[in-house]
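Our collaborator T.R. sent over the components below with a one-line note: 'Predict the complex.' Nothing else. No constraints on interfaces, no templates requested, no preferences about which chain binds where. So this is a plain run: every listed entity goes in together, and whatever single assembly comes back becomes the starting point for the next discussion.
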Amino acid sequence: MPAWAALKRRDMHDLNHLGRGLLASPTRLWAWAIFLFALGAHAGYIVDVRLHPDNGYIDFHRAQGSPFFDAAMWHEMGLEIASGWGWHTWSGRRPVYGWFLAVLYTLVGVEWSYVAALAANVVFIALATALFFLALRRLYGDLIAACVAGSIALSDQAFMCSSVTLSEGLGLFFLAWHFWLLVAGVQQQRLTLLAYSGALLALSNATRTLTLLATPLYVLVLWWLLLRQGASGRRALWAGALFLSATCSVTLAFMLQNYVRVGIFSLSDNTAGDLYAVTAPEYGHWTPEVMNRIVAEQKIWQTRDLYKYQMRLAKQHLRQRPGLFLSRVVGHMRAALDHLLTYDGPWLAAFLVLGSLLWPVEEPRLGAQGRWTVVLLGAVAVCFAPVRGALLALGLAWGLVGMPRRESQLLAALFLGTLLAVGLFGSSMERLFLMFQWSSLGLQLGALGHGLAWLHGSPYRQWRQPVSLAPLAWRPPAWAWQLALAPLALASVLVMYRNTAAVRPYIPASQLQPASERLVQAAVAREPSLFTAEERASAQPQAQQPPDISAEVIAERHGRLAAVCALVEPQAYYFMPRSQRAPMPNAALQVRPYERTVLRLAVRRHQGPLLPVFALAPGDLRGLGGRNVCILGRVHAGSTAPEFVEVIGWCPWSDDGATLDVRSLRLTTDEPQHRRILRELVETNSAIKPQN
Amino acid sequence: MSNRRATVAFVVLMLLAGFAFGTAVSRLVSRPLLPVETSPANSAPLVPGQ
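Returned assembly:
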């Protein structure tokens, strides 16, 4: 029966007619609607942002269509591994997203790498949303589950994370999958599902989510729930033990690979930095300054040394001032809750209005009075953060004492575990809120639903629905998988081999080295006052470290080196309000993200205080119109990203890349001068047609 | 309307509605996610974040 027929007949709770087909039941209708709408919405957002880089949320992970900050690091990690250069970018970081990108990039090739990564993000966010819905509907019914899932799919954080190469999409997908299997495993009392769920929890934490601390709470809740459902004590213990062992073994595997490769026994290297910042009296939570100071003062660069140094200090501080640490943890948790309750307001508003309209469909017995109750409660909850706090507390309490749907204890456990992680690591950054915003909203809306159910004769009793692990209608027969898998695997290997072969043979920059030395020497000779003693010493030929990879990867593909003048844009540009942004002379440059990233890699591999960047413009790129420019930059202590390279000079370079015109070298540290020089370079070439 | 046609119409409609919504969000919203006072531009980070 099509779902709208069910809607018309208002027998939403009669789910015994689960037939085949997309629209065979209201639940399927909801799930597919949420999935498709989220898919379309994120695709629409990304397409618009790619076509008009100034549109969308202003965020420092995206700069003129290219990945920036952390997003650039993930993109680099993927390209680096895919290209066979080893793994140097964020080498101790939680690895799964980087590995995923590497596999994706070898499959689609380097030119489509960024687009493919964004497409994958869209699919993961949409899948995560649908899975959240499927899990939560078993706790609170279709309507509330749809509201919570919708609020995740359409939140600004979700749009921001899906439109760049950030690990949130994949992490959220694993988390949603984990929670779905967890609820299903409890309801069906199937231990295998619980083991899968534990493994997925670990996987989601090796990707992003920081929800691992919920594990002990989960184990307790699992044991309790199974006992309450009439399982034997032994089986209940087994359930907890299986879940725990699955989570621990997968987590341990990831920790071991970090230990073998980098020498740190941790899921991610930044746990040390976070913990150190929370325990150190002079900080409180992590900021870039924490790392910069260590690098500048202690001269520690290696991931392993940094990790060990920060961990040693953190333990020392913990022994000396445990009280300070505890008070900070509590403070972070309070700040996170405050932020969460402020942030939830608009989402609750939107979905409560929607909910009040749809509630009669979900619960036909609810009359006009009930609808007005929803609107009234919603209005109060939206206006006052303390009311949202009370709703959250009520939801938590309801979850913990296990009222009509006892599985909401699982949601409460996840929420509390994530909150504890936020407190311990002080990571009250906005992006983390995606991870437990939905559990918070689930608890709040759940509490609201419970309240209404109580007001109107407990309709929740009717919501006990048969558990099905196949809510999506179509499943291929078993033989189809086997038949499809073999050629698919073979094709994947062939495609990977072709792409890897195309990417890998980069040329050592032997041609660039003499030019680089000449540039630095000429600059130091021209304006010695601009350079420090160390930099002047490094200008001696013997002190120069040759860059061992270069932009010639791009040359391989395009016949010439590509221009990457995005490097010289002042970073402040990205944080200006749109109205105050001056048109940048090099905004017309259409550099593909992977080209920029490959040059970033070249820059990062270069050692030494002065940095020659050979940014060359082939004719087919709009921008400098064929004029080759070499940029001289100063590397600040602690810098690992070329955005923070201070540009101090430009020099034209011949088209063939062989000669460097050092007589035309322009040197300045003044930012307005930077713009002027760039503008002149652009204006002297008639082929340039700036877009702005 | 047959079930198959209804399904196709439903899929296309949901995707299109979503696409329109996402495009509208991208065009209409342009506020910074971090307040300007605390944005990395002012603290001049040298290292990408955690």
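Summary for T.R.: Chain B touches chain A at residues 3, 6-7, 10-11, 14-27, 29-34, 36, 39-41, 43-50 (CB under 8 Å).
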